[in-house]
Known about the structure:
The chain is an alpha+beta fold. The chain is 47% helix and 24% strand. A hairpin with a 3-residue loop joins strand 11 (335-341) and strand 12. Residues 260, 263-264, 321 line the site of magnesium ion (MG). Magnesium ion is lined by residues 260, 263-264, 321.
Amino acid sequence: MCALQYLVDSPQRGVLLLNLDYKVISANHRAAELFGIDLNELIGSTLPDWIKTQPKNFTDVVEEVLHPRSQPEVVLHRYSGPIFGSHGKLAGRVEIYSDITARRRLETEILERNRELAELNKRLQETQEELLRSERLRTLGEMAAGIAHDINNALGIVLGNVQLAKRRVPADPEYARCIESIEMAARDAADTVRKLKEIGRPVDRTRYRPVDLGKLANSVISAMTPEWEKQNKHIELIAQLEAGCVVEGDEAELREALTNIILNAVQAIDQRGTIRIAVHRDGNRAVLSVSDSGIGMNEETKKRVFDPFFTTRGSSGTGLGMSMVAAIVMRHNGEIKVESEEGKGTLIALRLPLIG
Ligand code: ADP
Ligand code: MG
């Protein structure tokens, strides 16, 4: 009974002894204090009704967390178990109540801190990835600037001569097809060089004007609708364009970015599907998003979607579209987010600083 005696006197824990009728036959001051009643009143009474769990059998052990009615903000841990006298004879039950409010608060605080840490870690990782991405794009841009001029000159000569040859081609369909192929390949190459140059282009603030994203989206949609009608795709287009979302930017670049994102969405849809284009404000940012119900991306593609030359579309892709979009968004001090699930679809969202 030594340990029990110690507990009965404990200033920390409330201790009760119950007889075989669940009546309190002994209690310490701390128990009365935690229960919010007088010690004399406690002794001889049954347990108050805010203690809900009663053992099914007298010998069962019960452990639970409770709030005393008199102090609902206090968190109590309750241990209730049988005690045995000499010869193992059942003597009654002991109830031990510990105030774990401070511990609980600490636990919640630690959990909160852990959540904050995880959030910070995630943001750090995203920043690192973004830095890496911008570094890669910068290197590529510098390289592109160096070669674009020469390649463009060469392509100019090829295309100029194609025009001349076209006029003189005899009525041989085989020749005509060759010339046609040369022209198409040279135009594709010119488009690749144009995209490379676009990635490497420095910020030119003199070209920046207020751009209404809703109006921009509307005009891009009108320009692109024939694109998927031509491809015989049944695409339901939903546009939710909030008025007055104006950002400071290069209209041609922003148009190019949106065109590329929508083009990818169209390409991701096989036969029929939905593309939703939305513009709305979120605090001091404008959000321009395009979501599609297309094939979606696997984890690997999602990670590499902004890598220059990364494409899953074989020879029909350049892998420069999204790199160019990322470069344009970076030049506008914006952020770009990709959410995608294989087989379900993709959402690309641009966040750009609003004017004013
Ligand atoms: P490209 O279109 O020439 O392949 P991009 O840079 O535009 O290059 O896109 C890179 C890759 O990202 C695509 O090949 C495709 O795998 C993936 N991707 C981009 N947009 C989408 C989309 N809306 N749905 C599914 N995959 C996409
Ligand atoms: Mg593309």
